[in-house]
């Protein structure tokens, strides 16, 4: 089992962002976004390099194809944020409170997601490499068709995860405080789980194999 490589983010001195809204294909370098209401705005295709986004509202914000590089995202909140086909590389995502986030087709590489709660996260066909989920709650995350390589779940809760058609390589689920797989339990090849988790998953595994358990 190969461990995930964590990002090493060292932000330079940042300039406060004062332009207000986002722009499609905008270029944001070395900026500090503090407590901004970005709800409903269009930053599709934008690039965020060496940036900090703290306490920003992202309800229905369009950030499809955006790139977040060497950045720290803290306390983000919002429903229906569109991050389809976005790229996250060397990023910390801390204490997020998000719901219905669209990350299908996204690329996450050397990313730590720590704390907070994310409901109904759509990661279908996404690619995750060297990603750590730590001390967070993931409600009905959808990894359908996704590729996970060197991904770790540490002290986090997975509720009704969907692994349909997913491909797992060196995925460590042993540290998950709670592991519940609603669909795609047959895709666990390439993952490692604990003995206790195996017992918890036994009914689902039996159902997948067509085994009837009685008595």
Automatic annotation (TrEMBL):
Domain of life: Bacteria
Range of residues in the leader sequence: none
Cross-referenced InterPro entries: 5peptide_repeat (IPR001646), Pentapeptide-BTB/POZ_domain (IPR051082)
Pfam families: Pentapeptide, Pentapeptide_4
Database matches in SUPFAM superfamilies: Pentapeptide repeat-like
PANTHER family from the UniProt entry: BTB_POZ DOMAIN-CONTAINING PROTEIN KCTD9
Protein name, entry field: Uncharacterized protein
């Amino acid at each position: 089992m190969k461990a995930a490589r964590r990002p090493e983010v060292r932000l330079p001195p940042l300039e406060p962002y004062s332009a207000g809204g986002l722009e499609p294909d905008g270029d944001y370098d070395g900026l500090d976004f503090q407590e901004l209401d970005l709800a409903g705005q269009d930053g599709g295709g934008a690039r965020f390099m060496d940036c900090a986004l703290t306490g920003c509202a992202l309800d229905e914000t369009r950030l499809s194809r955006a790139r977040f590089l060497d950045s720290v995202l803290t306390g983000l909140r919002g429903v229906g944020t569109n991050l389809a086909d976005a790229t996250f590389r060397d990023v910390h995502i801390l204490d997020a409170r998000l719901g219905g986030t669209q990350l299908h087709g996204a690329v996450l590489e050397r990313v730590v997601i720590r704390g907070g709660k994310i409901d109904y996260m759509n990661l279908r066909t996404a690619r995750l490499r060297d990603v750590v989920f730590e001390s967070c709650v993931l409600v009905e995350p959808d990894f359908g068709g996704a590729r996970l390589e060197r991904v770790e779940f540490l002290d986090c809760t997975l509720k009704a995860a969907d692994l349909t058609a997913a491909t797992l390589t060196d995925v460590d689920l042993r540290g998950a405080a709670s592991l519940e797989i609603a669909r795609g339990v047959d895709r666990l090849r390439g993952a490692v789980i604990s003995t206790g988790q195996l017992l918890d998953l036994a009914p689902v595994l039996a159902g997948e194999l067509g085994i009837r358990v009685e008595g």
